Structures are given as structure tokens and as C-alpha cells.
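I am writing to request your help with a piece of structural work I have in hand. The matter concerns a single protein, recorded as an amino acid sequence and a row of C-alpha cells. Could you please explain, in whatever detail you think fit, how the C-alpha cells follow from the sequence? Thank you for your consideration; the sequence and its C-alpha cells are set out here:
>
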Amino acid sequence: MGYSYGSLTGPKMCFNAAKSWQLGWYDLREETISVQGTRAYVGTLSSIVDDPSQPGSPILIKMDTSSGDDYYMTFNSRTGFNSGTQEGGDNVLIVAAAGEGLSYARSYLQSKLSAGGVYTKENFDGSGQNLTVTVNSIDASNKIADVSVYIGACPTPTLTPVPPTLAPVSPTFVPTSAPVAPTLAPVQPTSAPV
């Protein structure tokens, strides 16, 4: 499935996102973005070292095309069984590969994104619209990245205005004391009158 090192003990590292998709290890925690289907994902991208059998946010995101290369994304957390990763540790990696992720195809690293990084593929799948991937933040200690992936315009959340709530005011039936006038302190003149 690709290049390997001569040592049996390391370095400890995972397959890239395209090869991981092909192996099907993360089937329960995958997301697909395409022109014809779901056009956006905004949220958490879990690390490649997360347990795929446990519920949670996606570990792999495929940006699917109708022909040619597809794009695959993962958070390449440098920990656990991926602690020896040689490239793009604690970055979001985007890899391109043909074959729909189902058969042999060479894969090519497209981008290594740290927090604030943006990747754009113009005219994605011939749609006339761009594919944009933004890494909003990375939390390496919790092994997550916050990402926005979309085709076309960035989706804007629909906010529903919430009317203000007023605390109930209970009327008082007993008179309150009258306002008190402030007490003025004597002031010493600063100079002789003119």
C-alpha cells in the first residue's frame, strides 16, 4: 500500500487518508462531501488514532468527484500508534487518489494544514464552484481539529432571534422612604477670590 521502512519496530505511523478509506477501517466514522450530495461539513474531525468502533465525529472525510481524483482528509495526530509519523504530524492532511477509494491507485499529498490553514480546489468536480477546507483550530492534546469543508459558498448558520425575557416585577404596596438628598462636603477655596 505504499512506501515502508526497513525496521519492524518503527516508525509508528498510519496509512494516509485515501489508503485508510480503501481499507474500510473507519467505515462507521466517515463523511462524504460531493456536488450531488452533502455539500458541507462544519465541525470536529477526530484523530486517525481514535477508536473507529466508538461513536463520535468523523475520522475520515471524502470529497467525492464523479470522475477522476477524489480527495480524502484526516487529522494526523502524532500520538499512540501514529507517534512516529514522518510528515504533517498534528496537521490536517488532504490526499488525492483515483479509484473511488476502492481499488489500487497512487495517492498524492495535496496539503498539510495547521490551525488557520485553508485549502482550495477550484472548479471542484467541474461544478464551477470551489471546494474549500478551512482548519479553524487544532487541539492536539484532545486529538481533534475543528474544520469547515464546503463546496460553493460557505454555509451560514440560520439564527433564530430569541425575544428578550423580562424578569417579572412585583408591585410594592407599601410606600418606600423618600429619596435622600446627597450631603455636600465643605470645599476649601484653592486661591483668593479675584
